[in-house]
Amino acid sequence: MDSQTYVNFFRRTSPYIHAHRGKTFVIALSGDAVLDANCQRLLADIALLQSLGVHIVLVHGARPQIDRRLAQSSLSSELHDHLRITGIAAMHCVKEAIGSTRLQLESELSMGLPNSPMHGAEMRVMGGNFVTAKPLGVIDGVDHLHSGEVRRIDRTGIQRQLECGAIVLLSPIGFSPTGEAFNLSYLDVATHTATAIEADKLICISSTPGICVDGALQRSLSLPAVEALLKHLPLDSQAQLERKLLSASLHACKGGVGRAHLIGFGDDGALLSELFTREGSGTLIVQDYSETLRPASIDDVGGIIDLIQPLEEAGVLVRRSRDLLETEISRFMVALHPEGFLIGCAALYPIGSSGSGEIACVATHADFLSQGTASRLLSAIEAHARNQSMDRLYVLTTQAAHWFQEQGFTATTVESLPDDKKLLYNYQRSARVLCKKI
Q1: CATH architecture type of domain 3-286
Q2: Does position 288 have pLDDT exceeding 60, yes or no?
Q3: What are phi and psi of 382, to 5 degrees?
Q4: Of 33, 54, 202, 414, which one's alpha carbon is 20 to 30 angstroms from that of 89?
Q5: What gap in Å lies between CA 60 and CA 27, rounded to an integer?
């Protein structure tokens, strides 16, 4: 690579460097990835992320290491529905395998030889009892013994270490309040950690380079697409891995994590390519959709009715007939999914000649809640109100007062409403009144 090509490449990566600085990534590294010849270079790339200002929580797996340790001890461990049944003797092997894997990772993350990618990194790797576990118990009549699941993540403890500049290393083992140790799924630990600390990304690194459909790598997937794939994946072993990765990503994104990435450990530089190039290297699963916001048209009436009808039946929104919606459609703004269907709406009504407006009928499709659609619609409505020379917006709500307050509205009284709106206030509905100066 000549110097100019390198400079151009570096300039193209700069927006990603700025975007990732200060963010928190939870990286789930499978046990197979730890055994792979590319692991040392992968860890060097993780160290590079940390040096660029990314907060890293690294969660490692150890299934092949556990299998090897069990075989060396002439022990077997049964699986039930792809979950290991961990007896007392097997648990000793689990502890040894996980401990050995953890030490290997700590050792390689501590390297700093001259002329190596980690020279001068001076990384601190911190661990601890950040994961509280509980037993899986009896499932379908089968006692899973010392196999467990995550009960709680010590969010404060992890964030304190991240703020001190350390990489937090978590192993797939957890402890109960009674001091018992439980064998956990590393993906379960990773997803619970990502949601608990409100991570910006969950990155799963495994033997699969991403999700393929009909032989084609899917560069990005929406949450509904992930749910559809989970319903139709075959039952073979490779699909089982994809099922686990998709389920972990879905759980994380629905829990508030902005994005999940599925990449393979076999390709050198796959992690950096995924994070610092437009094309990526694996599959991106997004929580936050790049929906289209536009004024509503008469063709949107049916979609708006489908959207608001459940909220009207629950008493959250005031009922509107189709005739009324058709008459008032010019008041509405809608949000459209990239695939063309309506996922949100909001309306702006001028209040007489007061120079104020009322925001009404703010609704988001149930499958797209907590993804920022309503906030973006509200911002678009506010911009539209300013263009109409309005200086104040009101909202009357029975259920969403806290959300509107988070958007900058403040609680006020019925008496503060403009006269034209005060005369129409429904005292039986007892809606709270909020106001925002724009």
Answers
A1: 3-Layer(aba) Sandwich (3.40)
A2: no
A3: -65, -40
A4: 33
A5: 8
